[in-house]
């Protein structure tokens, strides 16, 4: 059987990420105004992927050696590493600006001066399907929830509904650190908008202040679309086991977006000259839908006692890693912008003292290894490196930052898991009561249809929604999700990537890498290599296919109430899909 993961475990992709992350992390204390565009373009007929040149200011430009094609939120073509990578990444200095060729039409559009107020087109493209198609918590449960909230802290249980309206908390003294020009173009922004106060305010959390004075609509009398921001609840499952015990309320009602707030869904025509017409009519065949989230945007009802913030150090890693993964050909969320609070907001975070970092591995010449061959010594040192995990042992103040991450959808397996659990609990307590007539079931089915609409429109939504054939749609959702998640995990193995927190809530239904928190790339191959002291062996490098299988199993369980309620056989469906998944994830592990 052909393995999708390459045989080589020393995947070359890690060199790209390690290099860029290290360079920018070391420069993060300096005044930074970086822009990132097309990090890598690849012409399918050429192995000459990229070339690098220094600017003389400790920076570098990345330019294509072979003319490429425009990239999109879809997967980029897999990038071949080898001699070309060695040429590309040898002797690289810090990149402040990454540029790339553009078509004549693209170049002409980008060079035209901005002729409308900043964010005007962006706001006109709002299309909040999560809010429009799904439900907020009802007033009775909101009142019940507020009675259980602790004074002064927004954390509270959320008993029903798919989202909670919540405004971001703006950063004080926001300063732009980095933007992705490529993604700005794809989302329909004019390059000059990046320099505007409106852009800086909106993507640093001041979503209302960004449009101050522009609330009356445009010269055509078109009323400005409402600014809607929200956070979502979901469930926690780790390696297939459902958890509620570390929720503050002991019942799972406190899990959800603790510091990520969605600030827009937009529909962008494939032909940007179509901007200004009814975008809804163009989706999905002639337009793309994107959701934008601010990570580190402040407290939400799901923050469970935390401050809701992210710091510059981790935000730099997320920005660069997500863009690098995209250009390595791996399905991932993207990063639009990174903004720091300059001499403003800070958070206390654990870190490593000099003493904690001083632990070193024995050398090859260590007398204790003298009885072993060189190959045996290397294997022993690799084992030691994988086992040497030290916890942070000090606290430090770090600048707050907000990353704007972008995806077609942030629909998690945990979203479906949450509503399925509520249906199952109701069925256990009410016996023969028809499940389909309950709010709990309707919330689960609505969530399923919404995932189909956002992720698998042509395959699972369009053929079945008009007739409300929920069983058929659920089956197609499983088929497409299995392919997406297993392909994603295979790609992780290909480049040596380790997602250190691969729970079902951090697994998007479509198979898109997200949540660059505890992550890394293997420096030396070890099957249990992990990048977080709490990862455990279950999230070790070569155990990721097992974790992917466990997450998919949670998805199967979450859709069984829909299949059962619509004439299907849940037990038979479970066995069928888990058997298929075993083969899919076995291939993913190579």
Bulk shape: globular
Round the Cα radius of gyration to an integer and report it: 24 Å
pLDDT < 50 stretches: 1-101, 217-222
- Give the percentage of residues in beta strands: 5-15%
Structural class by sheet pairing and helices: alpha+beta
Based on the model shown, name its key terms.
590 residues, alpha+beta, eight-stranded mixed beta sheet, two-stranded antiparallel ribbon, 16 strands, 14% strand, globular
Question: What can you see in these coordinates?
Answer:
The chain is α+β, with helices and mostly antiparallel strands and 590 residues long. 34% of the residues lie in helices and 14% in strands. The chain contains 17 helices and 16 strands. The strands form 5 sheets. Strands 1, 5, 9, 10, 11, 12, 13 and 14 form an 8-stranded mixed β-sheet that branches. A two-stranded antiparallel sheet has the order 2-3. Helix 12 (413-430) packs antiparallel against helix 13, helix 12 (413-430) crosses helix 16 (544-565) and helix 16 (544-565) runs antiparallel to helix 17 (570-588). The model is unreliable at 1-101 and 217-222 (pLDDT under 50).
Describe the secondary-structure layout:
Blueprint: H1 13-27, E1 34-36, E2 51-54, E3 60-63, H2 83-89, H3 104-111, H4 120-124, H5 129-133, H6 139-148, E4 164-165, E5 174-180, H7 181-186, H8 197-202, E6 230-231, E7 236-238, E8 241-243, E9 260-269, E10 287-295, E11 310-311, H9 312-327, E12 334-341, E13 346-351, H10 354-357, H11 374-387, E14 394-407, H12 413-430, H13 439-455, H14 457-461, H15 470-495, E15 497-499, E16 519-521, H16 544-565, H17 570-588
Helix pairs in contact: 1-9, 12-13, 12-16, 13-15, 15-16, 15-17, 16-17
């Amino acid at each position: 059987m052909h393995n999708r993961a390459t045989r080589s475990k020393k995947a070359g992709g890690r060199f790209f990420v390690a290099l860029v992350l290290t360079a920018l992390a070391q420069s993060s204390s300096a005044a930074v105004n970086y822009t990132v565009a097309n990090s890598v373009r690849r012409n399918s007929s050429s192995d000459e992927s990229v070339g690098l040149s220094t600017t003389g200011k400790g920076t570098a430009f990345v330019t294509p050696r072979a003319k490429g094609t425009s990239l999109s939120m879809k997967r980029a073509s897999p990038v071949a590493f080898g001699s070309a990578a060695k040429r590309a990444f040898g002797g690289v200095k810090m990149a402040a600006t990454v540029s790339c060729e553009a078509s004549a039409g693209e170049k002409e559009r980008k060079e035209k001066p901005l002729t409308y107020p900043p964010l005007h087109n962006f706001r006109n493209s709002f299309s909040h399907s999560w809010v429009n198609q799904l439900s907020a918590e009802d007033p009775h449960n909101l009142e019940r929830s507020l009675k259980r909230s602790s004074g002064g802290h927004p954390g509270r249980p959320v008993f029903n509904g798919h989202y909670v309206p919540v405004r971001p908390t703006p950063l004080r003294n926001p300063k732009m650190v980095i933007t992705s020009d490529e993604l700005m173009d794809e989302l329909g922004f004019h390059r000059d908008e990046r320099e505007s106060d409106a852009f800086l305010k909106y993507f640093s959390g001041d979503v209302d202040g960004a449009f101050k004075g522009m609330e009356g609509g445009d010269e055509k009398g078109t009323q400005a679309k409402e600014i809607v921001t929200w956070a979502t609840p979901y469930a926690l499952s780790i390696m297939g086991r459902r958890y509620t015990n570390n929720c503050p309320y002991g019942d799972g009602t406190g899990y959800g977006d603790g510091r990520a707030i969605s600030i827009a869904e937009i529909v962008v025509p494939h032909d940007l000259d179509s901007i200004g017409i009814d975008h809804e009519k163009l989706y999905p065949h002639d337009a793309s839908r994107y959701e934008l989230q601010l990570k580190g945007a402040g407290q939400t009802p799901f923050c469970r006692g935390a401050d809701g913030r992210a710091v510059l150090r981790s935000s730099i890693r997320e920005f660069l890693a997500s863009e690098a993964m995209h250009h390595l050909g791996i399905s991932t969320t993207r990063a639009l912008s990174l903004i720091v609070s300059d001499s403003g907001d800070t958070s206390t975070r654990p870190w490593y003292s000099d003493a904690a970092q001083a632990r070193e591995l024995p050398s090859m010449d260590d007398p204790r290894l003298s009885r072993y061959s060189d190959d045996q010594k290397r294997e022993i040192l690799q084992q030691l490196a994988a086992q040497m995990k030290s916890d942070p042992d000090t606290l430090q103040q770090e600048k707050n930052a907000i990353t704007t991450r972008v995806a077609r959808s942030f629909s998690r397996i945990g979203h479906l898991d949450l509503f399925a659990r509520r249906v199952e609990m109701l069925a256990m307590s009410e016996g023969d009561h028809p499940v389909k007539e309950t709010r709990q079931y309707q919330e689960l089915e609505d969530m399923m249809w919404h995932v189909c609409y956002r992720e698998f429109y042509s395959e699972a939504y369009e053929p079945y929604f008009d007739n409300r054939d929920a069983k058929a749609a659920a089956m197609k959702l499983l088929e497409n999700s299995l392919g997406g998640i297993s392909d994603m995990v295979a790609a992780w193995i290909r480049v040596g990537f380790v997602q250190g927190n691969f729970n079902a809530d951090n697994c998007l239904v479509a198979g898109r890498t997200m949540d660059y928190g505890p992550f890394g790339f293997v420096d030396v191959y070890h099957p249990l290599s992990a990048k977080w002291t709490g990862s455990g062996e279950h999230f070790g490098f070569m155990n990721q296919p097992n974790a992917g299988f466990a997450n998919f199993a949670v998805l199967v369980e979450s859709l069984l109430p829909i299949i059962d309620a619509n004439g299907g056989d849940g037990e038979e469906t479970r066995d069928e899909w888990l058997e298929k998944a075993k083969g899919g994830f076995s291939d993913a592990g190579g």
